[in-house]
Design goal:
single chain; mainly beta; Immunoglobulin-like; 3 domains; five-stranded antiparallel sheet; globular
Length: about 475
């Protein structure tokens, strides 16, 4: 046992010992398998062995002798956070319950080894041979612990369900973005496009997510009737637009509903869209869930018109310390390039920072995500141009890129433009608008090609040369007159 007198010393030493110790977490040596139900390439839900049939694993009512849509099950060999994982070996999936009422497609399924980071898939559908309700199971086996128990394979079971109908019936399916997009199920947790992520309070609404309400029954089935959708939760944070909505949807047709996230307060916000429907299979009312987070500042994008500093790199992770512009702020300060004579120019350097500095975990520093930018453009007077020699469209965590705005007056008076910066930071309005201004002077003298605010010509090097030539020609003509007079 430790003596009581030693405890104070150990307590003092503990922070030092911890600061100088880099614990190495245990790495699981075997394969790590992830099984997902997917729709249009996106994950609907993660599956565990022998989960009850739900979501797309419950097929729509199907006529005897016909088939339902295919359901795709994706299997991934994943790498754990600490580097664990290994090649995944499996057997070919087969229908082990439900008989001929379910069919399977294993074309391209990999059994000879799925390396970490890779995946394979199989498909299953309902193909009833007689009337009734049927449960089915697709089973494959995998070598879960090749080091301790090599050659030992364990079952993984995917349960499915289907029922028949005597005649074609209407059937609701809800999809994200397009009528063939990722399917959305009643009361399913927010995921994929329904998870809007972060949005700055002053940025305005996000791009609207289009939800397609589809009657996916075969031709000849009855119409599907939908009640007017309403936001029963989150009406202060989400917006609803129904210009493409139709209350009656014929077989094979779809109507659209648009939802955007426009937070009014900081924090996490849930939204629920609710509508009634009469297919007799799906829930009524049917509910679609959304999620978004309101923030004071954009998560990544910071645009600055000063020389910094922008980051303090002493702490880990770094700290953003810059002073940045509000999106769409009026031209002022450094963004007023002052009075410039024709033939001259003034410049402004804009610095774009990626303020996603990452985080520090016990496994070490984890950098933030890259900020992706588009090519800036100028909207407004042609007196302003952008120079992109130092500009990069990818800004890594806690780093910057720059562009130069040049003002070369082509006319007298106040000139203005907006610099549009495209970006992929979903928390900020896109494109980010930077307003600039300047005043042209002495830009309307002579015979140049530009036009001034008063309708005259803009002067330049060419017009000065022209004026000189005209003067010389005048002197030559005058001298000839004098000579002739004397003779």
């Amino acid at each position: 046992m430790l003596k009581a007198a030693m405890l104070p010393a150990l307590l003092l030493l503990a922070p030092v010992l911890m600061a100088n110790t880099s614990p190495t977490p245990p790495v699981y040596p075997g394969p790590v398998m992830e099984v997902d139900e997917t729709s249009a390439g996106a994950t609907v839900t993660a599956l565990y062995d022998n989960d009850a049939a739900a979501y797309g694993r419950v097929f729509r009512p199907t006529l005897v002798g016909s088939t339902s849509e295919w359901l795709t099950i994706k299997i991934r060999s994943v790498t754990t956070m600490f580097g664990g994982g290994d090649t995944l070996y499996m057997t070919t999936p087969a229908v082990t319950a439900g008989g001929a009422n379910f069919s399977i497609d294993t074309t391209g399924f990999v059994t000879t080894g799925v390396a970490t980071g890779n995946e394979t898939e199989f498909k299953v559908r309902f193909s009833p041979q007689s009337a009734g309700s049927f449960s089915g199971t697709v089973t494959f086996t995998w070598e879960s612990d090749p080091y301790q128990y090599p050659g030992t394979y364990v079952d993984f079971r995917v349960n499915v369900q289907g029922s028949t109908s005597a005649a074609a019936v209407s059937h609701l399916s809800v999809h994200e973005s397009t009528p063939a997009g990722t399917r959305v199920f009643h009361n399913q947790s927010p995921a994929n496009a329904r998870e809007f992520g972060r949005r700055k309070l002053a940025a305005g609404p996000t791009t609207a997510l289009v939800l397609w309400l589809k009657n996916d029954a075969p031709y000849g089935a009855p119409d599907l009737h939908i009640g007017t959708p309403v936001l029963t939760t989150g009406s202060a944070e989400f917006t609803l637009e129904l210009s493409g909505f139709a209350a009656t949807i014929a077989a094979g047709a779809a109507a659209e509903v648009r939802v955007a996230f426009d937070p009014a307060s900081v924090g996490m916000h849930n939204g629920v869209l609710q509508f009634t429907q009469d297919d007799g299979v799906n829930a009524s009312p049917f509910e679609v869930q959304f999620l978004g987070e309101g923030t004071i500042e954009a998560w990544q994008l910071r645009v600055c018109d000063n020389n910094g500093p922008f980051f303090d790199n002493n702490p880990t992770p770094p700290a953003y310390t810059g002073t940045h512009l509000a999106e769409n702020a009026p031209a002022a300060g450094n963004r007023d390039l002052g009075t410039v004579d024709g033939g001259n120019s003034a410049t402004l350097t804009l610095t774009i920072c990626n303020a996603d500095v990452g985080y520090f975990a016990w496994i070490g520093y984890v950098p933030g995500s890259d900020l992706t930018l588009g090519t800036p453009t100028v909207q407004g007077d042609a007196d302003f141009t952008v120079e992109l020699a130092t500009y990069s469209t990818t800004v890594t965590s806690a780093q910057t890129t720059t562009l130069i705005v040049r003002f070369s007056p082509l006319a007298n008076g106040v000139r203005s433009a907006t610099i549009l910066i495209p970006h992929m930071d979903g928390s900020e309005r896109e494109p980010f608008r930077v307003h600039v201004t300047g005043t042209g002077a002495n830009a309307g003298i002579g015979g140049g090609t530009g036009t001034s605010d008063g309708g005259g010509c803009a002067s330049g090097p060419g017009s000065a040369v022209g004026l000189l030539l005209l003067t010389l020609l005048g002197l030559v003509a005058a001298s000839r007159v004098v000579l002739r007079t004397r003779t």
